[in-house]
Amino acid sequence: MAAQFGRRLRRGATTTAVAAAAVAALSASQAPAAPQSDTAAGDQAAAGATPSGDSAATGNSPYHTDLPPLNTPNKPGASVNLPVTGSAEAGIPASVLAAYKRAEQELAATDAACRLPWQLLAAIGKVESGQARGGKVDANGTTLSPILGPALNGQGFALIKDTDGGAYDGDSTHDRAVGPMQFIPSTWATWGQDGNGDGRKDPNNIHDAALAAGRYLCAGTRDLSVAADLDRAVLSYNHSTEYLRTVRSWFDYYKRGTHEVPDGTGVLPADTGGGTTSPFPTPTPTTGTPGGGTSPSPTPSPSKPGGGKSPSPGTSTPPTTKPPTTKPPTPTPAPTPSETFGSLEDAGTGTLTATAGEAFGERVTVRAKNKLGKPLARTSVTFAVVGATDARFADGKSTVTLRTGADGTVTAPVLTAGEKTGVFKVTAVAGTTKPRALSWTANVTARVADTIALTGDKALTAAPGAEFTDRVEVRTTYKGTGVADTAVTATMITDAGTPAENDKGPYFEDAAGDPVRTLNLTTGADGVLELPEIYADDTEGTYTLRLTTASGATVTVELKVEAAPAA
């Protein structure tokens, strides 16, 4: 069932003058009267349709309807640079404002074609939660107490049965909108983001919620610098023309200038409900309470238009004021099959394998198709790195959203392996109403040393029956980078031409102190290996020590056994 809402004016707006001011504010917003339907993939319904409540980010939950003051921060056309001070309504709490700007920067880097302005997030945040109840958030941006909408039980609101077991909203029967941007749990499960990099996706955190709202608004092929696309995006958040007009009013207001205020000092909307855990008040009864409750105060009878006399005492005259009427928006035709996202397919991605620290030789490429099976351009595709890995796309990003070209294809950025070896997944997802997902297995292999070399150049000599004074040290590398834990075999050989193990000359000692001429060793940090002591027997001469890695890299060391010169 779609949520049903009546028009709600600000508290105290009971006079003709205030009502006229509200109308003037709406007119100043330049909000369109009949938003158009979105023809791009993933958008929901025509503006004039009545979609189900769970197809909107908020489940069509109620929202604050306060309008901006008529005295905007700057005159139309003036600079949009942020003033240091200004009207109270123009102030946005510091953490909340930082979250909106951070989300704008993230979207500019990963989905630049969307052109998300932070002022749009601020307008939605104002309408949904009064900027997180005036900025009542902790140092990490998490609300000090939950912000919950009413149960979406179909009684005056949409009917959305529980989808999260009460994990986010504490209600295991029906869903409730959650957090400063008022996501319903089922929408958060799809669009939730980690905006502050703490490893969690929390709808109660303003950084996470603001980034999720930005990505939701940028779904499909929307360009929010285009008025029609912006209207579609807002309507996808809450399917109400009044909601669109209210958000548009605050959007225009914030574009004219705003300023930062300390957390917790932001101005709350008039209908906040007194600081309860829900941003929405309990309606005040307008009739007497059954069982002897107090009736409301009588309303004075208005004078007759044109200066006529008021009704005489004892005469009951019904009010002549007509309820406001709203002209429903004109539905626009649904997108044609050639404009509608249909499927996502692999467009020739090869095997994803890379050595630790190096770029993958292959890049993920996909093709989007419409309902007719033809290539579909300008379709948003989100590529993501999933699993226990430190492999990342450019600029250290694990998620990137790009759009398909004229041939329907799009290629993910170059993926670079980290130091963690093993397998993980790379996914590509397109579509919002019925998302299509593809995944590939990627593998990061350990570096294998391609070089082994001595770290010093000292001549290694010893007298017969004595110990070599200097120790042999080598380093294994892969393309110049040290490789730890590399297996190295050290062998005393007869000569380089016939590398058989020598039965005389220098030797090592095993744990029992017996002579051995072959040892299996392993490099340490940065690929460095220092060999144990080497001893000389009584036979003078020049001998060869060979060190070899499993990959076949080899280095030889010359060892001389000679008597010390006579004094």
Automatic annotation (TrEMBL):
Residues 177-217 form the Transglycosylase SLT domain. Gene3D superfamilies: 1.10.530.10. PANTHER family: LYTIC MUREIN TRANSGLYCOSYLASE, MEMBRANE-BOUND LYTIC MUREIN TRANSGLYCOSYLASE B. Residues 32-52, 310-319 have a biased composition (Low complexity). Residues 32-82, 259-349 are annotated as: Disordered. Residues 320-336 have a biased composition (Pro residues). It comes from the Bacteria. Residues 1-33 form the signal peptide. Residues 53-63 have a biased composition (Polar residues). InterPro entries: Lysozyme-like_dom_sf, MltB-like, SLT_2. Keywords: Signal. This is Lytic transglycosylase domain-containing protein.
